[in-house]
Sequence to fold (272 residues):
Amino acid sequence: MGLPRRPIQAVSTWMRRQPPKVKAFLAVIGGMMALVLLRAIVYDHDNLFIAAEAVHAIGISVLIYKLMKERTCAGLSLKSQELTALFLAVRLYCSFVMEYDIHTLLDMATLVTTLWVIYMIRFNLKSSYMEDKDNLPLYYVAAPCLVLALLIHPTTTHHVINRISWAFCVYLEAVSVLPQLRVMQNTKIVEPFTAHYVFALGVARFLSCAHWVLQVVDTRGRLLVALGYGLWPSMVLLCEIIQTFILADFCYYYVKSVFGGQLVMRLPSGVV
Fold:
């Protein structure tokens, strides 16, 4: 059993010794290779967005299993769950007034389960909630998103409130995981179910980003025009890329821990 791990450990050791710029370059190359592979094997790239929402739902299901089986919410960020519920609620509103489709149903299911997680943390399992570790103020995350939404939002024919709401949920989704990352940064030890959940978020973010990038490539940029003019189309793509890279470092150490057979994930200094 030790032999298959040696190449992985060698690559991991080599990666760890590289300077940040080299790691970033390798991450970009790896992401581009993954995009090429997805473009080749997925015929309808709109399915990637559905897959992203499905993976997010799976991540929430892992949390529910953790809460029900272990009866503890240690290591979870209530604030990240509240931000997730907020952007899902706003996106549901936008879906109802702008474009009702399958994504609306998926978002509704995810919102219901997220609200259940919030209820469990706030009431049933409050004694195990690490409030002192979950110390990133919500307004640090939500306020800049609202200001940005007021300044840069879609230029469609919908009512301005709906357009601002749409932009707000896009921006908020990109950074909603930051309080959870702060909790893990403060504890340095991530138990398995929390690690599975955050990894699922990372995969979901990448699939969503791949959906947008490949749609732009397939339409040769016409999709950007369909989204409107000004800075908004670029901001949509930028948010997708940002939320992918926010979790990229964590996903690397998660995969490393899984291949190393570690049940509890330990993060080195400087990660997330």
